[in-house]
Amino acid sequence: MDYHWHWAIFGELSPDGVRPYWQTLADGLGWTLATALAGWVMALALGFAIGALRTLPSPWLRRLGTAYVELFRNIPLLVQMFLWYFVVPEVLPVALGERVKAMPNAPFVTAVVCLGFFTSARVAVQVTAGIEALAGGQRLAALALGLDLRQTYRHVLLPLALRIIMPPLTSEFLNIIKNSSVALTIGLVELTASARAMQEFSFQVFEAFAAATVIYVLLNLLVTAAMHRLEHRLALPGTLGGR
Amino acid sequence: MFADFDVGVIARSWLYLFQVGMAFTLQLTVLAMMGGVVLGTLLVLARLSGFAPLALAAGAYVNLVRAVPLVLVIFWFYFLVPYVAAWLIGAQEPVKVGTFWSALITFTLFQAAYYCEIMRGGIQAIPRGQVLAAQALGLRYWQVMGRVVLPQALRNMLPVLLTQTIVLFQDVSLVYVLSVPDFVGAASKIAQRDGRLVEMYTFVAAVYFILCCTLSWLARHLLRQVC
Description:
The complex is a heterodimer. In chain A, about 75% of the residues lie in helices and about 0% in strands. By secondary structure, chain A is mainly α. In chain A, helix 1 (about 20-55) packs across helix 5. In chain B, helix 1 packs antiparallel against helix 7, helix 3 packs across helix 4 and helix 7 (about 185-195) runs antiparallel to helix 8 (about 195-225). Chain B has helices at about 5-50, 50-65, 70-90, 100-125, 130-135, 140-170, 185-195, 195-225. By secondary structure, chain B is mostly helical.
């Protein structure tokens, strides 16, 4: 059993003939971050909307919100990725479908949309839980003050819920970073895919994967530390996490 | 549009999809779940043990695995297991392990880290008085854990453990990256052979949706009876 270690591989030229291997990985990291961040913005916007929908008085809207959540939670991410990439362009009207297929960055855009919807269902669950965790008095007090339902959500319920659900949102953000690796199946060359490409060209399996692992771990630590500070600043006074 | 949706390709291939693909997926899910629960229990006992090096090592393992995407873990073990196997049996060449075993080892080790964290939450919710009372009664460590702490903790963590297992069932689809004929892999093979991607992937999504909804319903039903 002899594996030939060769850590200097990162400085050597990759098969594209221009850049060394470490830059291949750096590009991959860039795509991972871009995909995760863009997907995260979408997930937050949709997730807060759907999460709030599930707490409205109307039972039909609540059921609609729950159906949305169940749809995106009960299909594996990989299959959702395939649905968005292979199925949706065919099901759209022909002209639109052709435009979608001809997009220059199709894997990236598809991955963002897919991760955005997938993660939004998870965010929605947390938002619903956050709003339900608020004492019912908050809603009643806001309505008694003369706020309408929209204002109650906008100024009272959603801001408070956000501050309660910061910890689970942190783990969802970490999840979307990790989940972006699934996009390699539709051809997005993010961090895991670049490590895989480096391994295929250089045969230095363990160096490539070790480097990717270290980057993911550092990213994880960085996000955790940043979110921890944010959580601390946003924690509701009077709760166990607050000052 | 759906005008040329060909149901025929599903009718032709569903038996293969279930007999080969779904059988693989279910086998992997069930075996990885069992392995994951056993290993996860050992991990959580190590993590909560008073012996610092053991607790640190278990904690480091759990945090490392949870920081890395599953796809990368699958690649890691696919290449690592043959070397480790060769080292274990003293062979000169990396041992050919086969994708099923490689995937099983991967999912067991990966799942154990997640189960470990869930169990830790369940165990740490047990009041300290329970442990002290058990010790005061003269029970040994394994008796305290096996008879007092774990049975109560199991009730706390069962809902999350079941959810995590449904997640595992979905995650198994990622063995696709090793070109293994699991349910998604088998469907994708036929989809590409017959040029019927829309039909096959829609079918796969529908099957997963129905199965996962049924499983969560069963889990909720079970929980109402147990808890």
